[in-house]
Request: fold
Amino acid sequence: MRLGCLAATALVPFILSPARGHHSEAGFDADAVVAFTGTVTEFSWRNPHVYIRMEAIDAAGNAVDWEVETGATPIMRRSGWTPESLSRGDVISVRGHPERSTGRNYVLLLSLEKADGTGLAQISGDPQSTASATSLAGVWKGRGATVGDFYDRLDEVPLTDAGAAAKASYDFYVDSPAARCVGPTSPAIVAVGLYVNEIELGDETILIRSEFFDSDRTVYMDGRGHPDAGERTAQGHSIGRWEGDVLVVDTVQFADRRSSSISGVPTGPQKHVIERYALSNNGTHIVIDIVLEDPGYLAEPFAGTVVWNYAPEFELYRYDCDAETSRRFRLD
Reply:
């Protein structure tokens, strides 16, 4: 549906590095763009998505309600947005990809322009810092192209019969852990391009933090092994070791849940992930080689690589997922 009041001026381009987020972008028609002008009735600054509700006038002169989905608050802050960017009553022009086959007036934001000509968009490119790290400690952000390639390859991993059946039955709107504010586990939490990560090095533990769903991982470096009958938890049990300057992280004992990385394929009790973190010679990035085994659902091991760029100019923001907002994307 196209509205009669279209934005006449050029809008800010939308720049988004590849990543898997909370809302499946497959739910939107990337080949279609709708454009309309209307009045803001709600600006909800919460996670996992900032939402804008609008009232617009269609070609027949009828009032039409629209809902506009944008990124999470950390992404929007780095794109220049604040909780005061929009107010009820503001007149704005929007371009976005429409949702597929739902009948709702619901779009994924491409760009937005306010009445005074101010443009806003979601911008998430790779870091531009020329600084160099001397160790793995610091703030890092996934390099978009490597994240996209990682997921493209992961989506093609051969599945067992159980894995194929789970994938075929997966309904993102119903089964996604993110709909309950449950974040991803390794390797998905490593292969995130839109959010910032931080590594803190210690003698007995290493902390790997992601602002995506406030995911914190503790890697035990004191020589212990995995417990024989340990509790299966969201991020699993991680032990690490140094092989020269390379950090090797070994994780098992993941809790059962649907995956956010392989189209809903569950995590099995035998899931095992090895991550190898190697700082580049010039200190500008980390190369992370990942091997994933889950014989209950994956017919063969998967191996892939992600690059994190050094990003000391970036700040980690709290995600503080809001359960009510998390459910907003669901079909009515």
User: Anything to note?
Assistant: The chain has two domains: 15-125, 138-310.
